[in-house]
Amino acid sequence: MNFSTKILKKLGLSNGEIAVYIAGLNLGPSLASDIAKKANLGRTLVYHILEELTDKGLVSTVGKQGRKFIMEPPHTLKKIIERKHKELNIVEEQLAQAAVELESLYTPTVKPSRIRLYEGIEGMKHVAEEMLNTQERMLYVLAPIEHLRAMFDDVYLQYWFNERNKRGIKSKSIWSSPDTSPVSYSDFRDVRLVPPNLTLFTAQVIYDNKVTVFSSPQTKFAFVIESDEYAKTMKSVFQQLWLRAQKI
């Protein structure tokens, strides 16, 4: 494909239109049959293509009997581009006016769900620090607090809570038992105890469109579920448990 052909394709011409246009330029005023022979295309197809090129302003005709087709000179292509620019400017103005209506019709697509697994203490710390990037600045925590204490040392927990405090992230937490650790938590917390007859074996933190699950200290892994529907479901479950949880 030579340079001229590439440019014509960028202007929106099909391969057939390019072949007919170039053949017509070479021949000058010509019968459709001559153009078809030069372009190596069927005559019926060439008639159709000539009509398309006429609509695009690239072909004119002379004579009634034995009608001949004349390709417009190449500088006409620049005028076509200029016309398209003007048409696009008009469309852009109209689109700005229609934007409000179009936005009201738009239905966001549901983000695909995703599950990520992390193993070991360092992997679990990575997951814990990812929670600090919450957009909603709110964490819903359902956890056996003794498990978290067994997995993360006080130095790391103090660092994590200090970071949460700096970012103004609040939380609602339902714990399996009161926490007696000397680690200083931020003021951004509201804690209740798990309802009677409910045992927590893993810790779950719900935020934004994510649900993070931390395993027991023995198995040391965590996984993150990214799902709008699942996160909304778990937030709803948490709110029901919160109503039944014991205030401290």
TrEMBL record:
Gene3D superfamilies linked to this entry: Winged helix-like DNA-binding domain superfamily/Winged helix DNA-binding domain
Residue ranges constituting the Transcription regulator TrmB N-terminal domain according to the UniProt record: 8-65
Classification via SUPFAM superfamilies: Winged helix' DNA-binding domain
Domain of life: Bacteria
Alphabetical list of InterPro entries matching this protein: TrmB-like (IPR051797), Tscrpt_reg_TrmB_N (IPR002831), WH-like_DNA-bd_sf (IPR036388), WH_DNA-bd_sf (IPR036390)
Name under which the protein is recorded: Transcription regulator TrmB N-terminal domain-containing protein
Source organism: Candidatus Kerfeldbacteria bacterium RIFOXYB2_FULL_38_14
